[in-house]
Amino acid sequence: MKxxxxxxxxRGALAAVAMVMAAAPTLAxxxxxxxxxxxxxxxxxxxxxxxxxxxxxxxGKYYRLNISSDGQEEFAWMAPELFRNVWVNQVVxxxxxxxxxxxxxxxxxxxxxxELTFVPIRPGRYDFYVNGYQRQGMIGAFVVxLFRNVWVNQVVxxxxxxxxxxxxxxxxxxxxxxELTFVPIRPGRYDFYVNGYQRQGMIGAFVVN
Length: 209
Prior knowledge:
It contains two helices and 17 strands. The chain is mainly beta and about 210 residues long. The strands form four sheets. Strands 1, 2, 3, 5, 7, 8 and 10 form a seven-stranded mixed sheet that branches. Strands 4-12-11-6-9 form a five-stranded mixed sheet. Strands 14-13-15 form a three-stranded antiparallel sheet, covered by helices on one side.
């Protein structure tokens, strides 16, 4: 019986990574191991102005947005449709990290900044606004375009994490396991198979609703 060795498993992982890098020479902007894409700061001011009215985003990319207030007015910044269609990593305020399943609003009682990091999941146009001041023009939109069908967080083999822009294949030279974590973005049916063995029935599908 052929025994599995950790070195052999690592070689298999490295082979897969080599194929990944050949298919995608740049690091994924949407990967949480990489530096997030910094969006222009959104500044809310006491004269009822916002510094930005629109942000162009792509699904599967990792973004960081600073939302600030000058403290002259109390503001409640809201983007309910956006928060239903993104994966929020965290909100940071005064170097304190806040993890939340759902975000309702970001409220300013004084001058300060919220740092929001997130990954858009579904394409669309999502309004943001300061509650109660929409008629004064404190409204804008996130325009999210489709970039890829799935956002891959990482592949883990033998407790080693592999980060890559796009994955072409996972290759096994010996017994072992790849752990893949990901977020589906676009509905559809996506086949998976073992190359060269499709006729033997080694084929299946991910059905994303």
